[in-house]
């Protein structure tokens, strides 16, 4: 069954200029790394010639000199110790300005004037500010504000003092309970107290024997010739089997 197909597979021939074959070759050339770097490899084999005064070389050298710390500080190192036209450091404007800025930033020198003058204050004792401060101190003083009870500011025989003492005695707990001292140790029976009498009255109200009266205890005599009795007798005779 497959013999004819196997033989036919070996005899297939595709033309090399078909669109599919050409597209496959173009894709292979695009993805080929060797062809991608072929031009660069050939340029490297040819070599290059760059002069020392070329613009890229000069740019690189200038950038290197600018970035170099030695070149950056070379002028400063050469000028150290060479002050021309200034006999001393105080005559140099730059040094004088730096010293001035340092003096302004110094905390001790900044506060020197204040420390020297803060103890040299002369103020009269009758100045308004001093008098007002003394008055405020007296108002907020705890010593003058408090007056203890034993420091009486009035005569002891005044009416308001006597009245106050009487009020204190009435409010005193010892005086309030002094009339109960004679009751200590005395026996007391509850018979006749308000609670006992109240309980007895409640018991009498709830007592069924006292609340109800039995019929046999009532003294009652019926009348024999009353209409209801006569009617009851007549009905009994009519209903009697005898």
From TrEMBL:
<keyword id="KW-0677">Repeat</keyword>
<dbReference type="InterPro" id="IPR013998">
    <property type="entry name" value="Nebulin-like"/>
</dbReference>
<protein>
    <submittedName>
        <fullName>NEBU protein</fullName>
    </submittedName>
</protein>
<keyword id="KW-0009">Actin-binding</keyword>
<dbReference type="GO" id="GO:0030018">
    <property type="term" value="C:Z disc"/>
</dbReference>
<dbReference type="GO" id="GO:0051015">
    <property type="term" value="F:actin filament binding"/>
</dbReference>
<dbReference type="InterPro" id="IPR055297">
    <property type="entry name" value="NEBU/NEBL"/>
</dbReference>
<dbReference type="Pfam" id="PF00880">
    <property type="entry name" value="Nebulin"/>
</dbReference>
<dbReference type="GO" id="GO:0071691">
    <property type="term" value="P:cardiac muscle thin filament assembly"/>
</dbReference>
<dbReference type="InterPro" id="IPR000900">
    <property type="entry name" value="Nebulin_repeat"/>
</dbReference>
């Amino acid at each position: 069954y497959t013999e004819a197909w196997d033989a036919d597979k070996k005899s297939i021939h595709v033309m090399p200029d078909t669109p599919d074959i050409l597209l496959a070759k173009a894709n292979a050339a695009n993805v080929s790394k060797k062809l991608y770097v072929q031009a660069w490899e050939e340029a490297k084999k040819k070599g290059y010639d760059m002069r020392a005064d070329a613009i890229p070389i000069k740019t690189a050298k200038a950038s290197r000199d600018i970035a170099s710390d030695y070149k950056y500080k070379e002028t400063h190192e050469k000028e150290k110790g060479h002050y021309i036209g200034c006999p001393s450091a105080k005559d140099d404007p730059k040094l004088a300005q730096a010293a001035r800025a340092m003096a302004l930033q110094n905390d001790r020198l900044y506060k020197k004037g204040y420390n020297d003058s803060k103890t040299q204050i002369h103020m009269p004792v009758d100045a308004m500010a001093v008098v007002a401060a003394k008055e405020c101190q007296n108002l907020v003083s705890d010593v003058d504000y408090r007056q203890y009870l034993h420091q009486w500011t009035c005569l002891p025989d005044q009416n308001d003092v006597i009245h106050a003492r009487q009020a204190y005695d009435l409010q005193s707990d010892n005086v309030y309970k002094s009339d109960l001292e004679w009751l200590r140790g005395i026996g007391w029976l509850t018979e006749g107290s308000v609670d006992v009498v109240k309980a007895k009255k409640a018991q009498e109200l709830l007592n069924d024997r006292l609340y109800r009266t039995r019929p046999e205890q009532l003294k009652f005599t019926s009348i024999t010739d009353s209409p209801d009795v006569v009617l009851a007798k007549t009905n009994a005779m009519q209903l009697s089997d005898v």
